Amino acid sequence: MTDTITFGQEISNLLYASEGEPLRTCIQCGTCSGTCPVAGYMDHTPRQIIAMINQNMKEQVLESNTFWYCASCYYCTVRCPQEINITELMYALKRYSIWKGHYQEGLIGPIFSEAFVKMIVSGGRSFEPVLAPSYIFSFSLREFIQEISGATELMLKGRLPILPARIERLDSFKRMIGRIIPMGGLE
Amino acid sequence: MTKKILMIDDDPDFVSGIKAILDKAGFEVEVAYNPKDGMQALQTKKYDLLLLDIMMGRGAEGIMIARKLRKDIKLRELPVLILTGMREQIAFLFPGEPVHPRFVEVDEMVEKPVEPKLLLEKINALIKTAEAKKAGK
Amino acid sequence: MKEYAYFPGCSLEKMASSYHQSAMETTKKLGIKLKELEDWNCCGATTYFFIDELLAYTLCARNLAIAEKTGLDVVAPCSACYKNMYFTAAHLKKDPDLAEHVNFALEEDNLHFNGNVNIKHLIEVFANDISTEEIQSKVSRPLEGIRVAPYYGCQIVRPQKEKENVEQPQFFEKILSAIGATPVNYPLKMRCCGGSLILSSRTAALSMVRNLLQCAVDSQATVIATACPMCQVNLEVYQQQVNLEFGTNFSFPVMYFTQLIGLAFGIKPKKLGIGKEFVSFAPSLLPVLQE
Q1: What pLDDT tens digit does each residue of chain A (187 aa) get?
Q2: Of the candidates A58, A138, A69, which has an alpha carbon nearest to the alpha carbon of residue A106?
Q3: C276–A91 CB contact, under 8 Å
């Protein structure tokens, strides 16, 4: 029992599978950054983020787009010589930033995620069209038009659902969710 | 006799605020900042009350802890006060809806932020009720 | 007759319906029955892990509990669904507290998960459960001269489950060889397609797709074979957007491996969902598509 904990320890607490502070075993070899297919588009590479967490640079970490650009491909995780579960770290950072409501402005990831989670809670199955508003309005005009044109072609080829799919036992499904997260208004 | 409180909460800023209030009110406060440490503390030491957060670790861990306590013979009688900010933390799942009442058998639930006076009132009331129950046995 | 509990996943209804059709046709030809799970729900994709991991496990556990009642092994054609369910089962086995919590929730749907289910990706059925000889015996039109880039993607091979080869797997190539095609050496065969980043981090994902397409061109493949609906959509449906973004002019067919197997088995293209693609296979597969 300590008096207070550092940001680094806060993040370690989110990594349920690991004991102690796994990030402290990072040797900064850069294998993760070298392997990551998205690293070139991140504000900070995975290696840098781990170093920043170990230095308790909370503001800079939360303002970075690094973990919201992670595609969960697990390449870093299988190659890390210290066996740090880096993908799990990225999930943990996403959770942390959503729970705190603190993430880089303009990111589509958090909004899209919330829309997706709500969609499954309400029907039990995915229905793409309902997700569109969460990302499409952040697109430039050119991207917007491309996306609409792509969606139209998908629809013409019968590849886009028109009606939302629902599971049959939706009521008990929602009550099941209510036992994990006590949401109101489930009946 | 000084009453011992265990607080399981992953937010160090919130914890320091509450701890200050409780210290001043004469309680002895111990803190566990993650669910595993919290469960270990509960199994190895004796407390008069548990202040329990919900969202920590993998997700709504607090609920798992609360249910586990109620099944444990030794810990079943421990008064539990849930202190949660989940309606803010995952606001998109609670659009205007309050948290489902009685979702787990705890004694009380209070939402963050909590007024110091109210917090102390509830804590004292819960400890008193628990003691009366024990004496009445 | 081999039977499996079939978990299609959300995208196989419409977006990847050709994967579903070709999976059904090819397994039928091999004497395998895929029985769809009743009232299955979305596996949660990666997104539920961003919010609450316990809830993410519960979503998968519901499907696993439904599957357990059938007594059959579960087969998932989508890599993300496969990964989620496999690791949910593994975590529940390792952590009895978690299992107890999840089962408490499942009670609301009169379900209970005891941990007795095997989860496989559809490609594992072809790679492990059926012998190469059996596959070859059903081939009536070997895909001679068709050079295929075997695109594994990421979540079939990673995270590592046991001691399998995560750096140089060969099971996809083995299947392609069995149907007479020529699997090419495709260096980026396990590099991520971007997944849902195509929506949330569009430019980054498009550049990932571009690299994969360029590598297929450089490897002198004529078609990319995939085993995941997300990979197929990113590589094919967004190909035109890659061209607009980077000034390239890719026109590369991307098929599901079950469609290729189906063609080799002599099954009519229409039954394999061929015709719904954005980039036509016809030019590269002319010799095989001809009646």
Answers
A1: 457 899 999 999 999 988 889 999 999 999 999 999 999 999 999 999 999 999 999 999 999 999 999 999 999 999 999 999 999 999 999 999 999 999 999 999 999 999 999 999 999 999 988 999 999 988 999 999 999 999 999 999 999 988 898 999 999 999 999 999 998 777 5
A2: A138
A3: no
Question: CA separation (Å) from C286 to C59, C249, C281?
Answer: 44, 21, 8
Domain that holds residue B117: 4-136
Using the beta-carbon criterion (under 8 Å), do B103 and A98 form an inter-chain contact?
no
CATH number at residue B22: 3.40.50.2300
* Rounded Cα–Cα distance for residues A127 and A106 (Å): 24
Chain C residues with CB under 8 Å of B93 CB are 51
* Contact between A71 and C197 using a beta-carbon 8 Å cutoff: yes
- Whether A1 sits inside 8 A of B63 (CB atoms) is no
- Which CATH number does C2-122 carry? 1.20.1050.140
CATH architecture of C141-289: 3-Layer(aba) Sandwich (3.40)
| Domains identified in chain B, total number | 1
DSSP-assigned beta bridge partners for residue B51: B7, B81
**Which class in CATH covers the domain with range A7-100?**
mainly alpha
Query: Quick one: tokens of C61?
Result: 């556990």
Domain range list for chain A: 7-100, 109-180
- C1 Cβ under 8 Å from any chain A Cβ: no
C55 touches chain B (CB under 8 A): yes
Angstrom distances, CA of residue B122 to CA of B3, B29, B31, B49, B80: 14, 16, 19, 11, 11
Q: How many CA atoms within 13 Å lie on the side-chain side of C57?
A: 28
Assess: ipTM above 0.90.
yes
Q: Say if CB B7 and CB B36 are below 8 A apart.
A: no
Q: Where are the alpha helices (DSSP H) in C107-228?
A: 122-124, 132-137, 171-178, 197-200, 202-218
Question: Where does residue C169 rank: exposed (0-12), middle (13-18), buried (19+ CB within 10 A)?
Answer: middle
- With tokens 């270990």, the residue in question is B40
Nearest to A184 among B12, B91, B98 (CB): B98
Q: Is C40 on the interface with A (CB under 8 A)?
A: yes
Domain locations along chain C: 2-122, 141-289
Three-state SS at B31:
strand
Cβ atoms < 10 Å from Cβ of A12: 22
**CA C203/CA C206 separation, integer angstroms:** 5
- Interface size A-B, in CB pairs within 8 Å, comes to 75
